[in-house]
Amino acid sequence: MSKIDEKAPVPFSVMSGDGESFVVGEKTYTVKPMLVKHALEFASEGLSIGSQIFNLTDKKAMAKVSGYLAGYCTNEAGESMDLNKIAEDNWTVVDLKQFMRKLVDISG
Fold first, then answer.
1. What is the pLDDT of residues 58-98, one digit of tens each?
2. Contact indicator for 49, 43 with CB cutoff of 8 Å
3. Which of 66, 62, 78, 74 is nearest to 22 (CA)?
4. Closest CA to 22 of 61, 76, 70
5. Rounded to whole angstroms, how far apart are CA atoms 3 and 46?
6. How would you label 72-100 residue by residue, b for 16+ Cβ within 10 Å and e otherwise?
7. pLDDT grade, residue 17 (50/70/90)?
8. Are 8 and 16 in contact (CB under 8 A)?
9. In this structure, are residues 15 and 3 in contact, taking their beta carbons and an 8 Å threshold?
10. pTM: predicted TM-score of the whole model, two decimal places
């Protein structure tokens, strides 16, 4: 079996750009796939998609992560998220890591 056969099919909501659900606690968020221009920037920025402590301890990386949240993550009301809002919604560092991984996964 090839690597392609092993992967789950991409949901239509992701292919259409509508995004995919992401649950933290009792709240549901939507994560949308990145635009190509942002994916190219993301790839060159050296952000961690694993341990988020490294992103949160560097002001430039923290601003970039907040920007990706604002551009690609919305809450149930359709409002863009950022680091302040996820802190208010009691996200853990692990939740942030899962967001980053989902963003990368659905973006291809």
1. 999 999 999 999 999 999 999 999 999 999 999 999 999 99
2. no
3. 74
4. 76
5. 26
6. bbbbeeeeebbbebbeeeebeeebbbbbb
7. low
8. no
9. no
10. 0.81
